[in-house]
Write a structure and sequence with these properties.
Strand order of the largest sheet: 8-9-1-4-5-6-7-10
Strand content: 25-35%
Radius of gyration: 31 Å
Order of helices and strands: HHEEEEEEEEEEEEE
Number of strands: 13
Shape: elongated
Helix content: 10-25%
């Protein structure tokens, strides 16, 4: 009489062949469903970044071309950024004698010193936590004792801090 059931050694052999087939897969080839999943993840990421960039327009400042002078001397170390709502940020941290960041709030026609911890400098742009960035107005006589005497023209801003600062857009 023949045994119709496989022996223990035959069971182990077929199980090991099955495991071997599972282990042998082409390396570096994505299964089509995995490729589609990756593309969907990438598209979702791009969409979220694009929407976030659009929603955060008040928090985004773009580096603009402008000439900055301090006490009549041209200062190439200074950077000028403009927000979507028209405010202007002047980064004078690298300027000897000044070393601060100023914001010209177009809505209030005042100059302020923003909280530096809420500013994130990126190549070509600047992001802020708040819109407009929180800070202290320069004309607060208790804290600074300075009257900035802000003058605004069609293409320039001029105000006083420790020295006279003039920004002319190019």
């Amino acid at each position: 009489m023949t045994n119709s059931f496989p022996t223990r050694s035959q069971k182990n052999f077929s199980a090991s062949v099955f495991k071997l087939k599972e282990q042998i897969k082409p390396v570096g080839v994505l299964i089509p469903s995995a490729w589609i999943t990756r593309m969907l993840q990438l598209a979702t990421f791009v969409l979220v970044v694009a929407l976030g960039w659009g929603v955060a327009s008040g928090h985004r400042w773009v580096l603009v071309s402008a000439e900055v002078s301090y006490n009549g001397q041209r200062v190439p170390e200074a950077s000028v950024y403009r927000s979507a709502i028209g405010d202007v940020l002047v980064d004078m941290r690298n300027v000897p004698g000044e070393g601060r960041i100023f914001v010209i709030y177009s809505e209030y026609n005042r100059v302020g010193l923003p909280s530096v911890s809420s500013l994130y400098f990126l190549p070509g742009c600047l992001l802020t936590r708040e819109s407009p960035p929180l800070g202290v107005f320069l004309d607060d006589r208790v804290k600074f004792g300075v009257d900035p005497q802000l003058r605004v023209t069609a293409n320039s801003f001029e105000f006083s801090s420790q020295g006279r600062i003039r920004i002319v857009s190019e």
